[in-house]
Amino acid sequence: METQNLLNIQPYQRLAAYYDQLMDYIDYDIWVADIEELTKSFKSDSKWLDISCGTGSMALRLARLGRNMTAVDLSPHMIDIAAAKAKSDGVQINFQVGDMLTFNNNEHYDVIINLHDGLNYLLTTTDIQVFLANTFALLKPGGVLLFDVVTPLLCQTHFRGYREIFNDDQGGYERYTNYDPITQLAESIFTLQTNQDDTSEVETHIQKAYELSDVEGFCRDSKFKSWQILDDESMEAGDAESERYLVRLIK
Questions:
Q1: At 51, which CATH number?
Q2: What is the DSSP string of 159-202?
Q3: How does pLDDT run across 88-118, given as a tens digit for each residue?
Q4: 112, CA 20 to 30 Å: which among 36, 65, 128, 184?
């Protein structure tokens, strides 16, 4: 997009409207089936927290299965879209704006999920430790935390110099993502048109990929009593060939 003025805006300020388009490659039903298997010891009406819920696609599916859902995201724009989807579907979910590092509503949950790259937005070991401590405090004894982690292999395979252009009647976006294998950081820059021909808005999203040894360290240093690190495709033990890990921790 050729423009004279680029205005930096907050992540998901504009991109929230395109989030479902960005995620249309995901088979949510497979994710739900895997999560159901990993949480089958809980009753169908158990209390769940989707922390970093995006536009609520997972929370909606789980609520339809009878889960008592609370869903939280840092972006009020994402929460607005998620709440509208739930209202349209006639599904009851308690939506709130909140930070995954500090969210506390004085409730306790059987299961907490943080899926589809949410944890990769935490760029330091300290932040991950804070996240794990916070979710530990929010869980009931015996409760389960599930999160996924994108690995360097996935980023090197798919996101070194990745470009995408999407157009619609709202102007669409141009995306450029590059992965640095040294820092293990993937930076995505989204340029979005405005109603001014000479001005575009820019959202910058930075995520960090984590190796198996990193994830093992996070789990080992947490207060959780046990954990599994799985390959999200095979649901077998994750290894160096995994592009994404699905992690289950038990309080």
A1: 3.40.50.150
A2: -SSEEEEE--TT--EEEEEEEETTTTEEEEEEEEE-SSTTEEEE
A3: 999 999 999 999 999 999 999 999 999 999 9
A4: 184
